[in-house]
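Exercise 7. Predict the structure of Regulator of telomere elongation helicase 1 homolog from Dioscorea cayennensis subsp. rotundata.
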Amino acid sequence: MPIYKIRGIDVEFPFEAYDCQIVYMEKVIQSLQENCNALLESPTGTGKTLCLLCASLAWRRSLGEFSTTVSEEKGCSSESQRSGSQSMERPRSHLPVIVYTSRTHSQLKQVIRELKASNYRPKMAVLGSREQMCIHDEVHLLRGRAQNNACHYLCKKRRCQHHNRVSDYMKNHPELGNEPFDIEDLVNIGRTKRVCPYYVSRDLHKMVDILFAPYNYLIDPGNRRSLTGIDWRNTVLIFDEAHNLESICADAASFELPTGYLTACISEAKQCVDLCIRKREIYQSADKESDPDNYAILKALLLKLEKRIYEVPITSKELGFTRPGHYIYEFLEELNITYETASMLILTIDDATTLLEEGNTGENVTAKETKGTVCRLESIRDILNIIFRDGGKSHAKYYRFHVQESLPSISDSSKGKMSRTLNWWCFNPGLAMEEFVRMGVRSIILTSGTLSPLDTFALELNLEFPVRLENPHVISPSQIWVGVVPSGPSSYTFNSSYRNRDSLDYKQELGNAIVNFARIVPDGLLVFFPSYYLMDQCLDCWKNMNHASSTDFKTIWERICKNKKPVIEPKQSALFQHAIEDFEAKLRDRSNSGAIFFAVCRGKVSEGLDFADHAGRAVVITGMPFSMKTDPKIRLKRDYLDQHALSQKGHSKVLTGEEWYVQQATRAVNQAVGRVIRHRHDYGAIIFCDERFTRQSHQCQMSYWLRPYVQCYNKFGDVAFGLTKFFRDKVSSSLVKPKTTDRISAFNAVEITESSDDDLICVSDQPKLQTEVQDINS
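Solution. The predicted structure, encoded as tokens:
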């Protein structure tokens, strides 16, 4: 295994490292050695995750041996195994802990797979939710808060045998965590040993060198407080796949309270009153938790809050009612909800949660009985914690108070009454980062394949990043074709803006262009639209409009399907896995000449899937995915940033509302583009079908590695010729050995495996590549 000396530290790497990988690891180690923050962009396919693990673990080991060594030494002593308490203590508490986070558990599973491929064996643990880890016969069937509440109740009553065995299991197995494992491995251990995987991971995290967890375990204050075994002042935080981190941070600090949900909370408060009265009648109990007056007060307050929300004057349904963030305190004070009374309300809600658990579960917990045990009052507690955070009001300057009105949902019991939503939106994602600074963490490393532009990303998080990197790709120029296509086969300009998107000429021209791309591009083709609305409008036009000028009267949709079998990204999450499997099946069907996936920027297809090799030979971006300017949250965010920029006049670095607005759209495009070119030997094309991509202001916000390859074409014929030549050259040169995807997971990048040629859609099976441009009349 090669060893590289980087900034005085020996880094073991499983392969011969590329130059960009050496540079990346150098930046990671610099950040750790200098106890400063880093913002690192490196495109997918450059081994970013493996570099990050090897560099950070090499630095950590340079400070002292991993805890696995100590655990193994203690494991040799039967006396220490019997004592248990010694092995439960982290023996090297003065050494830093690395907390490695990503967006999803499936992404963390990939990270742990990379750890297994390395030569490093730190003591590790991975955190997950009960939904992923629970093995109780009844509770594992539940979801969300119903599952959490049922688990709490059973553990408190010591009725879960899996939980009861955790302490003894941890004492007798000090070696757990010495070898890398993921959540599935831990669940298998739990089922085999009949011990709770969830609480095993909670115990194990207190004595590790590296901890793997989803973002929310750090960003959510409640989850963060549960990590009691971590000394934050001696911790390194790594956020992988951090391109959406600012929106996640802002959402975690905000809340939206619909009146329909508030009605359900009122119902629960009334239920608590009834349960208390019944409990006192049965047990003759007069304890504080069983006092119905407490819950009657809670119910009365919630009723007043509901009434007060409906009293807010809304003169414009589009604009709603907006005030500065501090208005929330004036609004609540009219209801006698202050910091002092909020603390009492929170205690009452905690008691209500317990009461509802007991009232809905009884003596024998079954899935049928606990399925509806969801305490919505807990949301009110969370809201109060956000508003009265740390007992202060200074954070309110980053917020806007907004009430909006909408038609009631079908399930709303207001009988036709307009529904309202009370929003308190945080527009400073840096609040979460400020918490980490306040906690004194050593370093924060943010990394992704799509962080550009770095300046605006750093400004959004309100954090200094002395160490920065925008890495090039490891591929050669011959492996990628990038073209901006400002007009179609009939020279009609491509522009998906609001003014143009409903134009019949535009939709027909875009369809004709995609017909040509479907003929030219072999295997898998991805087409991304700015929104579901535009995708639906285009597909409907292509499917239902016959064109009399066409010699065979075929629709555009029929012409596309002649070359590629279509799959459409569904809006419903429940249908997404089926769409992925359908796309995979159509790729493998040798009677087809490939498949085309119609999807949406910011959708599931654009975010976490890996269309490597033949699964994604080209991606078409049909426009800029700008958010609706009239959306209240977007409008207020832009206003907030513009006001902040004015207040900071004279400072060199400020982010305006328009800059943020464009940056959000560009980053979504960069994410969609990143679905292809997934490894060193991959190849593919990226096609921008919108004349706005010819502007330098948009191109400079593309990912750094992509910019050198971008070419703008004046004629569509040149695009067709260039694409045809690119794929013909790739086929004839045979530079890349074809591979196939073993499976495309809806929540995970695919694992690429070598397969026999019989399993592949061979390029030779594709229709002959066309150099001529074919319009609707062909």
